[in-house]
Amino acid sequence: MLAEFYLTTAHNLEWFGNEMTFLIAIGGDGAPLGKYTVQRFHSLFLDEALKRSDISDKCVFSELPQASAFYKYTQSLRNEVKARRLYKQIVKWFNNDRQKNKDFSYRFTGKDSKLILHGFNHLIKQSVKNQLMRQV
Questions:
Q1: Which of 55, 59, 66, 121 has minimal Cβ neighbours within 10 Å of its Cβ?
Q2: What is the average per-residue pLDDT within 42-51?
């Protein structure tokens, strides 16, 4: 999917001679997209997982149903993507600030961005599984 994004976004690519050959601007931390773009991707996934889970405002993280999309997304972040710092902040937000109607706020580091990008397929797989389960 990431490759498809690059191929369909011509203004982000520098074409030189051969078809299907391009250069990608990589930041100093090695991430092919800026950390703010990755942060936005994560925000969209997080919001979608919450919407699909239909969780009450009073629910705390320890009471989440393990079958919920939100729980599965956070477990994928922790166990497969290895973004444990981000996971801990999500749990903290979920237990405290979400109940006050505050949006999740987290400043991504280069390391966080790199982990999310490297684990992007795990997050996509989890989202597709949830989508298929929702349609059945």
A1: 66
A2: 85
Q: Is the pLDDT of residue 13 over 70?
A: no
Query: Model pTM greater than 0.85?
Result: no
Gyration radius of the chain over CA positions: 17
Q: Which long-range contacts (C-beta less than 8 Å, at least 24 apart) are formed by 89-98?
A: 90/46, 91/61, 94/60, 94/61, 95/60, 95/61, 98/57
CB atoms within 10 A of CB 114: 19
The whole-chain average pLDDT of the chain stands at: 75
Residue 87's pLDDT is: 95
Contacts of 126 (CB under 8 A, 6+ apart): 72, 73, 76
Cβ atoms within 10 Å, residue 136 = 4
Q: How do the domains of the chain map onto residue ranges? A: 31-135
